[in-house]
Amino acid sequence: MENGTWLDEVPKRPHQPRTWSRELPIIADALGTSLSDRLLFAVPKKGRLHQACLDLLHGSDIQFHRHSRLDIALVKNHPLALIFLPAADIPTFVGEGRVDLGITGRDQVEEHECIAPPTETTGVTEVLDLDFGKCKLQVQVPAKGDLQRPEDLIGKNVVTSFTNLTERYFRKLEAEQAGGNGSADAPLKTKIKFVGGSVEAACALGVADGIVDLVESGETMRAAGLKAISTVVDTSAILIKSKQPSKPELVDLISARIRGVITAQKYVLCTYNIKRSQLEAACKITRGKRAPTITTLEEEGWVAVSVMVERKNIAVAMDQLTAAGAEDILVMKLENSRTG
Ligand SMILES: Nc1ncnc2c1ncn2[C@@H]1O[C@H](COP(=O)(O)OP(=O)(O)OP(=O)(O)O)[C@@H](O)[C@H]1O
Ligand SMILES: O=P(O)(O)OC[C@H]1O[C@H](OP(=O)(O)OP(=O)(O)O)[C@H](O)[C@@H]1O
């Protein structure tokens, strides 16, 4: 392909979601009921975040029945309707205030904000990091090739589903390379092309010198003979709200419920008995979310400790507690929570 013709020939990802005109009639017709008195909550309709979101809704006791093929579900126990949308489109719907709440990746929000910067009334507010969907948007090149640094891709062909973040990244890189001579308006030398999926195939197929794609375990990248040379964005799933939600109290209630479920998934409750003389050392190991609860035992000189510990740290904490003289260490899964 001729240099300089790529961007002109291949339209980049459109600003308006592809489903915009299709979704509105669906919403209007769905179930023959008015949505005007309901808070609208957008949930990824498929993909990596879908099942985790359904589990979160279930854990928050948000009860709904979704008819097959319908992208809307009325919630039975709250004035709420769930709208199932592509994760990439959710920042647009929430950002424009068409939908009040949403779950999507931080990467999708940042991609959207590149072309629709937030204003006082538009754009999204992050309510909560949901602690799943963690991955990195990374610049990748063939593992056995000559390209070693992201700068080596300047002027070359880069394929991605995140054209706006990729453009912002290479624009900054090109400006840095140009030193004081770089202008913000200078035409982009790097040629960026949008593909909707299977981005990792682009180098092997000869359409790209490098790609910008999501990496979690790195299996997809390695299987495609690629290696990561730089990170554009660190991402995880987030709960977002519009700037002027229709029912702020319900937004707060749903957010508190979701926060409770996420906290319950993130922490375990650990209890143990320890001599009072060893208590200070033990409390340094298990500091708790706020502070440990200490109860005096009937047995002279002993106390019982009850404390929340991050699930990912519990095995090490148990080893350290044992070494510090703790006994009867029990760890319990939390079903749900409301904490400060
Ligand atoms: N491997 C992964 N590990 C963790 N989170 C991921 C992973 N891949 C994607 N995500 C998160 O899930 C979001 C949606 O990605 P996903 O590929 O599932 O989208 P999708 O809506 O199914 O679109 P597509 O049709 O492009 O597959 C991403 O923006 C990212 O935040
Ligand atoms: O590092 P890994 O654990 O291998 O995960 C990374 C892969 O996951 C996502 O794709 P997905 O499988 O959702 O399909 P897609 O390519 O159609 O987006 C992403 O686009 C990567 O290809």
Automatic annotation (TrEMBL):
InterPro entries: ATP-PRT_HisG_long, ATP_PRibTrfase_cat, ATP_PRibTrfase_CS, ATP_PRibTrfase_HisG, HisG_C, N-reg_PII-like_a/b, N-reg_PII/ATP_PRibTrfase_C. It is found in: Cytoplasm. GO terms for molecular function: ATP binding; ATP phosphoribosyltransferase activity; magnesium ion binding. This is ATP phosphoribosyltransferase. Keywords: Amino-acid biosynthesis, ATP-binding, Cytoplasm, Glycosyltransferase, Histidine biosynthesis, Nucleotide-binding, Transferase. The keyword Cytoplasm applies. It catalyses: 1-(5-phospho-beta-D-ribosyl)-ATP + diphosphate = 5-phospho-alpha-D-ribose 1-diphosphate + ATP. Its EC number is 2.4.2.17. It is an enzyme of class 2 (transferase). It comes from Sporormia fimetaria CBS 119925. Residues 87-259 form the ATP phosphoribosyltransferase catalytic domain. Residues 264-336 form the Histidine biosynthesis HisG C-terminal domain. Pathway: Amino-acid biosynthesis; L-histidine biosynthesis; L-histidine from 5-phospho-alpha-D-ribose 1-diphosphate: step 1/9. One of its GO terms (cellular component) is cytoplasm. NCBIfam families: hisG, HisG_C-term.
